[in-house]
Description:
- The chain has helices at 6-30, 36-57, 62-84, 91-109.
- The chain contains four helices and no strands.
- The relative contact order is 0.16.
- Helix 3 packs antiparallel against helix 4 (91-109).
- By secondary structure, the protein is mainly alpha-helical.
Amino acid sequence: MLQLSVSQAWAVLVLAGILEVIWATGMKATEGFTRLWPSISVTLVALASFYLLGLAMKTLPVGTAYAVWVGIGAAGTALAGMVLYQEPASVMRLMCLLLIVAGVVGLKWWH
Length: 111
C-alpha cells in the first residue's frame, strides 16, 4: 500500500482539488450527460479526483482533507465559471470566494 508523507499528501490533495475544478466545470459540456465524449471525460477526471482524495485521506485527517478538497473545487469552479462562461464576477461574489480560500488556508495552517 502506498503511504504518502504529509507534504506529499497535501500535494496530492491540491491536485485532487484541481481535478475537481476540471470535472465540475466540464459538467456543463455534458449537457446533462447527453453528450458521450464529454460525459466520459468528466467521469474519468472525477474518478481520478476521488482516488487522489482518498489517497490523501490515508495521511491527512478526513475532515480537513474533505473540506480543503471541496473548498478548492468550489472556489476554483466559481472562478472558472466567471472566466469561461461569463458568470457574474461582482465584488461581493469575489469577496465570498476569498472567504472560502481563507477557510482552506486556515485548515491547512492549523492542521
